[in-house]
Amino acid sequence: MAKTKEQASSTIDPAAACAPEWTEILRQMILIRRFEEATEREFRKGKIGGYLHVYSGQEAVASGIITALTKGDILFTGYRDHAHALALGSEPRRVMAELFGKSTGVSKGKGGSMHLFDVEHGFYGGYGIVGGHLTLAAGAAYALRYQQTERIAVCYFGDGAMNIGSFHEAMNMAGLWGKDGMCPILFIIENNGYAMGTSVERHSALTDLAQRVRAYNIQTEKVDGQDVFAVRGVADRVVRQMRETGKPYCIEAITYRFSGHGAADILQPYRSKDEVEEHRHRDPIGILRNRLGEICGLTDADVKSIEDWAASEVAAAVQFAEESAPPEAEELWRDIVAEHGPVRENE
Amino acid sequence: MSEKSYRDAIRDAMMEEMDRDPNVLIMGEDIGVYEGTFRITAGMLKKYGGKRVIDTPIAEAGMVGTAVGMAMLGLRPIVEMMTMNFAIVAADQILNHAAKVRYFSGGQVDVPVVIRGPQGAGVQLSAQHSQTFESFYAHFPGIKVVAPATPADAKGLLKTSIRGRDPVIFLESAALYGMKGEVPDDPNFTVPFGVSRVAREGSDVTIVSYSRMLQMSLIAAEKLSQDEGIECEVIDLRTLRPLDLEPAYASVTKTHRCVVVQEQWKPFGAAAEIAASITETVFDELDAPVARVTGEDVPMPYARNLELLATPHEQHVIAAVKKVMYANG
To answer: Which of A175, A192, A197, A208 lies closest to A272, judged by CA?
Structure first.
């Protein structure tokens, strides 16, 4: 997506831009990219089953928002969820183990790629029905306020989720409850231009997606989702504001996915190789790396050491997943309900 | 003990639990200012305020989905469906989310949400407003399905639903709202899930049912006793999931004959599941095939005479009992 005038863009203050945190963010984004590349390799080897939706190209949208959160904030997303788990602090090896269907996975090997969960780190899933989780997240935000906390809920979804009923029901209820300061939910539209293979122009009557959210009395803002400085800048301001107001907010991040929709999307007939190539010139990792190089003197050697670290983290994650045991057969029957019945007293 | 209507028993259960636990709240369409289509929630908005008695938009997926999210964060929402027919609109939220999130998260969250409301036919509401849903929901692992037949059970089972850690589909019979019965006053009175009861003792035929059809079966049993000298044992299942058939097996072992009664359509219904389980478990005890009494396999018509033809009545139960006794004509 080309940048438009209304998108927030980063203004560079060298002191702020060179804070050590930005190098950490670069490390996180590189780790996510290498992790996703590894999942694609392991999928082709047959080590990962089911569906696999990777995040490559969109890293700034996860890292730019999630690094602005604090402990206690919670997050819901759809099935392209590996990056969110990693950015929230889930151990890469436990995320990889989940994809391998192992007992050491974050969801004990019972959720897989689409259902990563790590409540300890504020991650409330990983959902496989497009748009379904938006209503859950809005209710969770209500609960945070009901419990008189200043925590917020973050809900990611793609442009493709904006045409299903639960999107509209969640937005309306969030906007409604927000009037009473009872719904601190930050909606993030990961607008990567496609609902699976159907472009925004072909799936949405109105292509200004943020405008559709404004219809529900929710403030919105567009941001260049390839520029993590811009994303983080908006997030810092908005998150602070939401903790005070308890009102919902929506950020539309214009981004692009480099890989196919899922691992089976090999031919990608809905877009050209040239289009993908053109967007690779706006790789969010490249943008951040270049900026840190130009302004803060980050060297190739620095980047190399980050790359080496990420490669070894990912290799260790794959090895851990490989060596972990699959779930015991008894797991089949666990976690269906908390309290099993029948509960006759004589048994 | 006090005499209470089924409707008041439900309201009492909710208000006692709201008094007991500040995390309990209720949401639904026109439950607050309007006080509920069936007036179950009358007086609640005034007592508990708008944060705990939430008038929602007409948006079933929205109200169930948000309730599931609240439940995952530790609240105990009760969602009132104006009628259970409308809950189908929220099927994705109930079946794909509430019923599965504990499992696919590897047990990281509780989902204590109660989805309750009236169902059933009888007052000429025609095809979209007269359905019953117990077998639809009971098909899915991860949720519990409750169908009380008496005011005491309505109260005790609803309290168990609200205090639990799992999603519950609480199916009220609209036709029973005015029914009165003795209800314990103890605020800690609860009825556990998965414990069926013998509602009437008898030695000739076992009748298995729940909800309104249980009451109808009891009337049929009295008539059979008075008119024919046939003594039916009537089993009230109370909950369809978990399903406790032990008292039914014990009863069939005594009577050797069984009739299952449900209001809903015959194909793939609760009675089919129950009859199959009885056949699998106590086949050698049976002196006749298990008979089913069900609604007719048609969308509910409006005209009163057609509606009466579409729903099961005492005479159907009586005929089925005679059939399993090989006593018809």
So the answer is: A197
Q: In Å, how far is B242's CA from the nearest CA of chain A?
A: 5
Same domain, B23 and B170: yes
Q: Is A342 on the interface with B (CB under 8 A)?
A: yes
Nearest-angstrom CA–CA distance, A330 and A301: 49
How close B64 comes to chain A (CA, Å)? Answer: 8
Q: Which B positions 9-48 lie with beta carbon below 8 A of chain A?
A: 25
Are A134 and B108 an interchain contact pair (Cβ–Cβ within 8 Å)?
no
Domain at B311, CATH number: 3.40.50.920
B108 has a chain A CB within 8 A of its CB: yes
> How many structural domains does chain B have?
2
Q: Does B161 touch chain A (CB under 8 A)?
A: no
The separation between the first and the last C-alpha atoms of chain A, rounded to the nearest angstrom, is 63
Q: Which of B136, B161, B183 is the last residue of a domain?
A: B183
* Cα separation values, B127 from B121, B123, B130, B201, B306, Å: 9, 11, 6, 36, 12
Reported as a single tens digit per residue, the pLDDT across B177-191 is: 999 999 999 999 999
How far does the CA of residue A333 sit from the closest CA of chain B (Å)? 9
Q: Are residues B136 and B62 both part of a single domain? A: yes
Task: Report how far apart, in Å, the C-alpha atoms of B243 and of each of B14, B51, B81 are.
Answer: 24, 35, 24
Domain coverage including residue B297? 197-324
A71 contact B CB<8A? no
ipTM: 0.96
Q: Give CA A296 to chain center in angstroms.
A: 28
Q: Which domains does chain A have, with CATH numbers?
A: 14-324 (3.40.50.970)
Please write the tens of the pLDDT for every residue from B1-49.
Answer: 999 999 999 999 999 999 999 999 999 999 999 999 999 999 999 999 9
